[in-house]
Design goal:
This protein is mainly α. It has one domain. Helix 1 runs parallel beside helix 4. The radius of gyration is 20 Å and the shape is globular.
Length: 144
């Protein structure tokens, strides 16, 4: 996944992952275009009579805690950003581009406060219980 997100950087077509057009990382970082809303509005005005392509939404990042109903990526988004940034800075002799070493790290470039992010990520369920919380089965102590 990070290999694909770094293709424009490695090809020297973009200086950073967030500037890499048509990549999943850019779509995750920047406010995204609501394709379904655009289709509805165009279909309503008959400019677009049909749309015969599958919509493929990106999987969400779930962090590194596994559970039975896992549907997303077993990685936190902030860890993925740092992995892509770190990997993109590594010089590959057979590639034209790399993220310049003088640039700040991706969290700084995106103005993500590490402490605030960590607090939000570790307290997400408590902060957003009404909206995103779900009941988890209680563990039974099996000591004899």
């Amino acid at each position: 996944m990070s290999y694909v997100d770094l293709n424009p950087v490695r090809a020297d077509m973009a200086k950073t992952p967030e500037e890499s057009d048509y990549t999943a990382i850019q779509e995750r970082i920047k406010p995204h275009f609501d394709l379904q809303q655009a289709i509805r509005s165009q279909t309503g005005s008959e400019d677009l009579l049909s749309f015969n392509h599958d919509l493929k939404p990106l999987l969400h990042f779930e962090g590194n805690i596994t559970h039975d109903n896992q549907t997303g990526i077993l990685f936190s988004f902030i860890d993925y950003l740092e992995l892509v940034d770190w990997t993109g800075r590594a010089i590959a002799l057979n590639k034209r581009g790399a993220i310049a070493s003088h640039l700040p790290n991706i969290l700084q470039r995106l103005s993500i406060n590490h402490k605030t992010w960590l607090s939000s990520a570790t307290r997400f369920e408590a902060l957003h219980r009404q909206r995103f919380g779900r009941r988890r089965p209680k563990l039974i102590n099996q000591t004899a």
